[in-house]
């Protein structure tokens, strides 16, 4: 039996599927999208329309990605120079070093992209891990957008085929993960590297509840990579934040604001009739954040109709974090910081790798003997 490395080389040289060459199995074929149990995009669209029919409401991030045109506008935003320069500066080599140190060569391991979008970074990561002799790898991609997940599957297809790395693409809502986390298990124990790239974590309404509820099934020692915006200052003074934060002070370059607003207003523009004007207000919100040191930027839309009617919606919610305060808080939640790095031209992005551990039990009164 050849080693997997030899098998890989033979398969590449002969342009054959390594799974078929080695084991008589077509290892991957074309990765398929699996619809997660209970996922109902039509019901989500109905929820969106119900919110828009009211005078006021909050549009969760997921509604922006359900619609393929919104997903398209998200991709345009990624190409906007200010946004693109941050993505280009992502410290992939440093993150890879951390993972390579934490995952043994023989550990079966899954990269699990939560809200993966087009999954460029997940595919790069697994490609580089594969090059570092990690053999038993799988790529699991989860997203709510058919359009983005479809592109993710297409871009991972070639790698999956040539390197015999299975790809499992799941169309679903990550808030419901505990209902279908059994889909993520393998034949035996596997290490997991869960990723949330592209600021997805910072858009959550309550990220602590997300970790407690949606990630409750994660095993001890599994890793979590969070890619979030960094706070512009450690100060909690609103004037200083407003002055230093590049979104609040409108210091972002080029057409960032128009591209971002184009994306954020998509669900309003496409689903509301007879709109006369849509104005956007960007505000600082310090009181809804659960992680100390973090603050949120809230985008609100005031929609004026030709009839004179007016509606108000929250269309964007994004938090910024102070690394050591985020780390301290997540430590109590069972996630220990391995390392965090600031990156981007203005150091306004933050990638932090956490490892699951059992949190120390909270101090409280011990039950007395015979009590209870
Ligand atoms: C900010 S984008 C980041 C995309 C990608 N990770 C990147 O770095 O470019 C957020 C992603 O999360 C997905 N998403 C948002 N809410 C979701 C939910 N509730 N369940 C699953 N995916 C969701 C969106 O479709 C989108 O692809």
Question: Could you explain how this protein is built, in words?
Answer:
It contains 15 helices and twelve strands. The mean pLDDT is 91. The protein starts with a helix and ends in a 16-residue tail after the last strand. Among the domains are: 1-26, no CATH class; 31-38 and 85-232 and 322-356, Vaccinia Virus protein VP39 (Rossmann fold, 3-Layer(aba) Sandwich). Helix 5 (68-79) runs antiparallel to helix 13. The chain is globular and about 75 Å long. It has helices at residues 4-14, 18-23, 41-53, 62-66, 68-79, 81-88, 92-102, 120-131, 146-163, 177-180, 207-214, 238-244, 256-264, 266-271, 323-332; strands spanning 33-35, 56-58, 109-114, 137-143, 167-171, 191-196, 223-229, 275-285, 295-305, 310-320, 335-343, 349-356. An eight-stranded mixed β-sheet has the order 1-5-4-3-6-7-12-11, sandwiched between helices. A four-stranded mixed β-sheet has the order 2-10-9-8. It is α/β, with parallel strands linked by helices and 372 residues long. It binds S-adenosylmethionine. The site of S-adenosylmethionine has 18 residues, from helix 4 and strand 4.
